[in-house]
Amino acid sequence: MKLQTQIFCIVLLAALATLTAAHTHIRQVVLNGKQYEPAQCIRPYGKRYSYPVLNIDGPEMKCGYAGGEPGTTMTCPATALGSQMSLRWNSELDIKNQNVIAENHLGSCLVYMAPLASNGLGDVWFKIFEEGYNNKTKEWCNQKLRRERGYLNFTLPSNIPPGDYLVRGEIITLQSARERHSVNPKLGVQLYINCAQIRLSGEGRGESDAKKLLPPGVAFPGAYKDTDPGMLIDLKKSNPDDYQIPGPKIDTTIFGRPGGEGGGEKCPKKKRS
User: Fold this and answer.
1) pTM value?
2) I want to staple 50 with a disulfide (CB 3.0 to 4.6 A). Which of 25, 171, 181, 185 is the partner?
3) Could you say which residues form the signal peptide (predicted)?
């Protein structure tokens, strides 16, 4: 009986280790090449730091588990509008392990912004980046993320008011999205969400009445439905070229020009530690 208990514990621990490796979270912020310490400028994680959000109508849709309030989070010092930014994803707190996300967790990557003063409440979130399936490279954003060692690279808007902002990184994985979680609790789309706090400087659209000068936004929760094509999909039966990334379209005027794939210019590749 004792041997059976030991075997059960070993199997359970192995399963938990596999489950943990399947999860991910934003561990590090990079602004214009400056790499901040792990967890700096990022809203609190809590104990469920790498767990997926399953209830798309829950408060954790805003900034993940325990990320709803700023707590002691520092705001990254001023960087210029239009700067390059990277959000580094990892499944573990120790980024040296570089376990970014499970190989079978296919899906899309998205980035939203909102004024920090709003605390992310209401229709304040505007999309600045999205990437799903690339039919040229034949890979999902999550696969690219693994290849890039967890770095999700994008360009910040150049044509919005300067000030303090929340940057909401989101990964949507579709390996279990063939059924809605509300119908089958064992399945459903999985979302990994965290928020960073940054300060943008420069001219932009001007400093007065920031809400009026920002593009129309959406609310989290509220922007997605579990019946949206990008949230309810059977990867084994669908053509990845037909995948529709959920959420609003990117207002390319925030970049001061028509945006390329993903909404703005992609960051050039650079040497990273």
Assistant:
1) 0.86
2) 25
3) 1-22
